[in-house]
């Protein structure tokens, strides 16, 4: 006899039973609810869900259920499937809702009458597609969406910096000097000094930090390959955040001010835009220069999917007055402090 999984669901409960060579094994009955406790506002799910045994072979793409895990900085809710490679997955983050759509689910008939998998987690079944919807007001904190080999994840982030993973990206490096000021100041040197100081501040607060370069050189000579490598550093860290640090430049010597970029084509674009605005506000407050706003730019280093990404353009190095500011002995420390406070405020609020 073959192996199969039978999943029987009711509102706020899921019963998993596995039939293995004719023997029925009841794995678990659980009740799940979203609620928050203490100051961390972390998702509380109990008891833990035991998924079917890893050696249980399934044909096609089956929805297996929900799994939770926790580290210092995050609580992860995973929607587990047997073969997501065969499915079409779409994640949508809007003002009010997070929606996760998974098509080509072979055991879809098990869920035809199911409306909720847990409190505040609604399920809608259409054809062979499962649509999960969460009301964001229930999350009460920062979050990330991510797709793994056979799961789709919502990462609920704690409000402190302890346990966070952040990639810092000092722009340019090596033969690529970036923009150059009227007196010869190079962007690659300014942003490296800021990044190294910011790394110290974040690590003191309990953040795990990886940088895309630690010296004036960059790792990969080819420009596009270098940009892709910078994203890979964040992926390898399983980062919560990617912050690229630059100075602006223009042939118009009077161009001046501050701006922060994000990419609206990623699954975490909503959170990236909010991070960009927080960073912009802090930089403008610190340096009292023209607020050029938060801008959508579809550039390579902002295309990472499983983390928030922003690129801060901190003053125009090509503007004589702002180049003078960038040369100041305390500039790297001021910029790093401003970025640190912005990152801290983003997670707290």
TrEMBL record:
Biological process terms in GO annotation: peptidoglycan catabolic process
Gene3D superfamilies: Zn-dependent exopeptidases (3.40.630.40)
MF annotations from Gene Ontology: N-acetylmuramoyl-L-alanine amidase activity
Pfam families: Amidase_3
Start and end residues of each MurNAc-LAA domain: 231-344
InterPro entries referenced in this protein's UniProt entry, alphabetically: MurNAc-LAA_cat, N-acetylmuramoyl_amidase_3
Top-rank lineage group of the source organism: Bacteria
Membrane-spanning residues: 12-37
Cellular-component GO terms for this entry: outer membrane-bounded periplasmic space
Protein name: N-acetylmuramoyl-L-alanine amidase
Organism taxonomic ancestry: Bacteria, Bacillati, Bacillota, Clostridia, Eubacteriales
């Amino acid at each position: 006899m073959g192996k199969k999984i039978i999943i029987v669901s009711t509102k706020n409960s899921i019963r998993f039973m596995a039939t293995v060579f004719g023997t029925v094994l009841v794995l678990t009955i659980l009740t799940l609810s979203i609620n928050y406790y203490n100051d961390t506002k972390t998702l509380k799910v109990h008891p833990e869900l035991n998924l079917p045994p890893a050696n249980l072979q399934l044909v096609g793409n089956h929805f297996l259920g929900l799994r939770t895990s926790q580290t210092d900085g995050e609580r992860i809710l995973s929607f587990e499937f047997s073969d997501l490679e065969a499915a079409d997955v779409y994640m949508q983050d809007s003002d009010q809702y997070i929606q996760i759509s998974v098509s080509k689910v072979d055991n879809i008939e098990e869920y035809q009458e199911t409306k909720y998998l847990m409190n505040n987690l609604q399920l809608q079944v259409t054809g062979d597609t499962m649509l999960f919807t969460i009301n964001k007001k229930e999350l009460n904190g920062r979050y990330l969406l991510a797709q793994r080999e056979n799961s789709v994840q919502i990462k609920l982030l704690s409000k402190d910096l302890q346990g966070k993973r952040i990639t810092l990206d000092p722009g340019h490096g090596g033969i690529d000097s970036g923009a150059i000021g009227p007196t010869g100041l190079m962007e690659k040197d300014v942003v490296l000094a800021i990044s190294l100081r910011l790394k110290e501040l974040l690590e003191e607060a309990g953040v795990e930090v990886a940088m895309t370069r630690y010296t004036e050189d960059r790792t990969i000579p080819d420009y596009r390959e270098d940009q892709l490598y910078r994203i890979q550093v964040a992926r390898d860290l399983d980062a919560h955040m990617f912050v690229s640090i630059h100075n602006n430049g223009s042939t118009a010597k009077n161009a001046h001010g501050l701006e922060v970029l994000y990419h609206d084509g990623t699954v975490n674009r909503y959170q990236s835009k909010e991070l960009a605005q927080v960073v912009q506000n802090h930089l403008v407050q610190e340096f009292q220069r023209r607020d050029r706003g938060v801008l959508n730019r579809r550039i390579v280093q902002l295309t990472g999917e499983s983390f928030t990404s922003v690129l801060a353009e901190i003053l125009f190095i090509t503007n004589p007055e702002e180049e003078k500011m960038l040369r100041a002995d305390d500039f790297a420390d001021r910029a790093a402090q401003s970025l640190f406070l912005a990152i801290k405020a983003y997670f707290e609020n």
